[in-house]
Amino acid sequence: MACAASLSTGNALQPLVRESVLRPAGSAVNATSAMFILEKRFPFEASHCLQHHDSKCSRLHGHSYVLVVEVSTEALVTSGPKKGMVMDFDEIAAVVRPLVEKFLDHQHLNETLETDAPTAEYIAYWAYRKLKPSIPCLSAVTVEETATARAIYRPKPLDSLHRIEHDHETSFDHAYGPVS
Predict the structure, then answer these.
(1) Which of 57, 63, 108, 114 is catalytic?
(2) Going by C-beta distance under 8 Å and a sequence separation of 6 or more, which residues neighbour residue 8?
(3) Where do the structural domains in the chain lie, given as residue ranges?
(4) CB 96: neighbour CB atoms within 10 A?
(5) pTM over 0.85
(6) Helix intervals (H) in 33-178
(7) Model confidence over 2-25: pLDDT tens digits?
(8) Is 106 a catalytic residue?
(9) Annotated catalytic residue: which of 106, 111, 169, 174?
(10) Is 57 a catalytic residue?
């Protein structure tokens, strides 16, 4: 399956479909195929308070977070300026950086994410839902809250954005409110 990337063009995100791909020797497209995985890190500073927490995290405090975006696919581009790549790191940054700047960096997450529980888990889930439409080969989002604590949101392999939007609304969104 070819990876589709997105480029930021003004205010609109445009899908960029890759038609020419290279698979690892001997690989077939199935659930056990080899994967190419890219990670791009986006550090940000933010405050939050977990209003319902039963310890010190219920008080206003901040972290030096890192948002890690994981992109994976079974194929590499075989021709053109992106030959040998899954996706250009600059393409990932063009989509993720505006989201980080608008909602996360130097923000109070309770306000910008519109939740009273902006945990690392929630931030990872929120970011995945925001980024997946623009980065179709997005496979996971990790939020590092400290050097020793991180949360990863990785949908089950058979999940699609449609399934995520509908199945999780009954559990995650019920507990935390919808991602806006």
Answers:
(1) 57
(2) 94, 95, 98
(3) 15-173
(4) 24
(5) no
(6) 89-99, 109-112, 120-131, 161-167, 172-176
(7) 353 433 333 333 343 344 444 455
(8) yes
(9) 106
(10) yes
